[in-house]
């Protein structure tokens, strides 16, 4: 069974390294110019997941949370745009930051806190949910 199929069922991760390895494996299945919406509370592993995608796409630059920059662009086998929408709250923010430009080639757009800018999400976007379980492991599920 592929990592894509396993994620549809849900995978438990016990460490940041495991989360990154899962994302790196998934990176080979991500279509070009795709949008991935990462859902989860603070500390659920969203940025860690993006680090794994970057590893899979051979991005050399260190991936960090773009909370204060809103987004960061990384280049590797894929161009990754890591967007943190935590501080965005309306259509005007989307327009002023020209965020819809990242839905056009050559970018793979990964959004943390996508519910804050739901109107930008495409119908074919992948929604990945990261939840902290009672034993502090993380459940990662693709829907």
- How many strands in all? 7
**What is the name of the CATH architecture?**
3-Layer(aba) Sandwich
* Helix-strand pattern: HEHEHEEHEEE
The Cα radius of gyration reads 14 Å
Ends distance: 17 Å
Tell me the domain tally: 1
- Strand order within the widest sheet? 1-7-6-2-5-4-3
Q: Estimate percent helicity.
A: 10-25%
Fold-level CATH name: Rossmann fold
Tell me about the largest β-sheet. Answer: 7 strands, mixed
Oligomer: single chain
The low-confidence runs, each spanning 5 or more residues with pLDDT under 50, are: none
Assign the structural class, choosing from mainly alpha, mainly beta, alpha/beta, alpha+beta, or little secondary structure: alpha/beta
Could you say which overall geometry the principal axes of the C-alpha atoms support? globular
- Beta-strand residue percentage: 25-35%
Please explain how this structure is put together.
- By secondary structure, the protein is of the alpha/beta class.
- It has one domain: P-loop containing nucleotide triphosphate hydrolases (Rossmann fold).
- Helix content is 24%, strand content 26%.
- The chain is built from 4 helices and 7 strands; from the N terminus they run H-E-H-E-H-E-E-H-E-E-E.
- Strands 1-7-6-2-5-4-3 form a 7-stranded mixed beta sheet.
- Helix 2 (16-26) packs across helix 3 (46-56).
- The two termini are 17 Å apart.
- The mean pLDDT is 89.
């Amino acid at each position: 069974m592929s990592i894509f199929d396993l994620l549809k069922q849900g995978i438990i991760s016990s460490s940041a390294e495991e989360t990154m390895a899962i994302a790196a494996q998934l990176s080979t299945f991500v279509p070009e110019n795709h949008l991935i919406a990462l859902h989860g509370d603070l500390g659920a592993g969203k940025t860690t997941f993006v680090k794994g995608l970057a590893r899979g796409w051979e991005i050399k630059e260190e991936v960090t949370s773009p909370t204060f920059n809103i987004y960061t662009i990384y280049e590797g086998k894929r161009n990754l745009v890591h967007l943190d929408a935590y501080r965005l709250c309306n259509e005007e923010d989307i327009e002023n930051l020209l965020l819809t430009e990242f839905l056009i080639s050559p970018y793979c757009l990964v959004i943390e806190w996508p519910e804050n800018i739901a109107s930008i999400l495409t119908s074919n976007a992948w929604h990945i949910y990261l939840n902290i379980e009672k034993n502090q492991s993380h459940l990662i599920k693709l829907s």
